[in-house]
Amino acid sequence: MAKYVWKTCFVALITIIAIAEIGEYITGTHIPWVMRLSLVLGMTVGMTFLKSTLNLVTAMEGEKPLSGTVRNTLGPDRSPEAPNQDASAENKKSK
Asked: Could you list the residue range(s) of the whole structural domain that residue 35 is in?
């Protein structure tokens, strides 16, 4: 994650400086360095937030739900590869 933040900061710095210099050349309007650095910081924080969110969503998709994989699940969602458990009296009555 630290490498991603540094890469984002570097790319944002180069991009903002290039846009500001081209804009100043074309329009003659100067953008102060404080404004440029605040834009770089904003882009870096925004992209870091989006990357963190993507990492969390990816981690949640990788988790396995407990439904159908626990040994004492008795509902119709039990997976076929789970071993049968006929220890309860309710299972014996339903057969």
From this structure: 2-58
The model scores a pTM over 0.70:
no
Q: How many domains in the chain?
A: 1
In a domain, 9, yes or no: yes
78 Cβ partners below 8 Å, 6+ apart? 68
- What single letter denotes the amino acid at residue 10? F
**Length of the chain, in residues:** 95
CB proximity list for 48: less than 8 A, separation 6 or greater: 1, 4, 5, 8
Q: Give tens-digit pLDDT for 55-91.
A: 888 888 776 666 655 555 556 655 566 555 555 545 5
Q: Which two tokens stand for residue 92?
A: 């014996």
DSSP 13-63: HHHHHHHHHHHHHHH-PPPPHHHHHHHHHHHHHHHHHHHHHHHHHHHHHHS
26 assigned to some structural domain: yes
